[in-house]
Amino acid sequence: MRPGDNLGAVIRQFLPALLKEKGVSKHQLKVLRALSVCRTPELGGSAMVCGDCGSVHYVLHSCRNRHCPRCQGIDKELWVEARKQELLPVKYFHVVFTVPHQLLELFRFNRKLMYNLLIEKSWETLCLFSNDPKLLGAKPGAIAILHTWDQQLRFHPHVHLIVPAGGIDKNNQWKNSKQDGNFLFDVKQMSAVFSARFAKKLRRLKRQGKIKKQVPRDLIIKPWVVYAKMAFGSAESVVEYLGRYTHRVAISNARILKVTHTHVTFSWCDRKNGYQKKIETITGVTFLKRFLEHIVPPCFRRIRHLGFLSSPNKKQSLLAIRKSLGEKPIQTRPLSRVQVLELRFGQRSLLKCRDCGGELQLLENYPKERAPPVNVLSGIC
Ligand SMILES: [Zn+2]
Ligand SMILES: [Zn+2]
Ligand SMILES: [Zn+2]
Fold this sequence. Notes:
Distance between the termini: 22 Å
Order of helices and strands: HHEEHEHHEEEEHHEHEEEHEHHE
Oligomer: single chain
Number of domains: 2
Bound molecules: zinc ion
Number of strands: 13
Strand order of the largest sheet: 8-3-5-4-12
């Protein structure tokens, strides 16, 4: 990747051509514009002065948009730190629910509704299996994350669920899933229940006139792909693993290898062929068309905490589970934004002087119209 070959540059270069070819919603345009100016003089910047050596550092402001690959780093770290407080000393599973290709058109025309349906039915399936006394007989918890892409940036809606292997039984005791938490549920059975319930609700929504476009006649020609794997080693690695999924955006800047006047070259990982690294070159406009598919509707919650991990229940449930497992409650407080930045990025942190490591303080903010006075290297937050 050459410096400057990033998503922002691709958008700046090819947005005018895209707008000539394709209608773009107001919301999509807002997101594209935000990403295109992230850490450019157009967004303004700040001057920071070091309390120890007095040197002045300039930083460009970032867009903080949730679709921006540059801006996800710190949010991810903060999120991961907060989740560490909620870790349980149990096994965890990673479950993925996907939908077949013939539904993609319906997803495109009913994004919010279909995304909600996908998350709802994935979770409902997990609850049904968990509540079944023969399979577990306990109330589950999970973190659900909606992704809409495959490695080549094509439209592929799917839900990742990170699931503690067990649940809370009616006596408020923790109960491991089968084989001492080493087995969750049969994926074929989960797939059958998930697809049947999804299809049934979809048809009901269609009858109620809430769905644009036709619902295909044969929705379940072959089993829908549901995947489950015990994903993690130590508790610490659970949250690191989680972070990889939660704050991922459709493409990272590191995967954008080359941008020419007409084309974008990016790398992707071919999971079906032994995780081979491959390279693809497409026109800049095609690239942006693919990227557009992954802009989620305004205010849509891509990450959801469910069951005993949902906010109203979480604190008490986690306390009860820890108690039933003979564990002490976690006493430490979550780290602040400043602490997380320091921990993760050390000297590279915006809050530390690059010359002497001293504390930086805000000297002046430069508004959008008046960029920082020098060509600066951008920082982290
Ligand atoms: Zn200094
Ligand atoms: Zn950004
Ligand atoms: Zn995914």
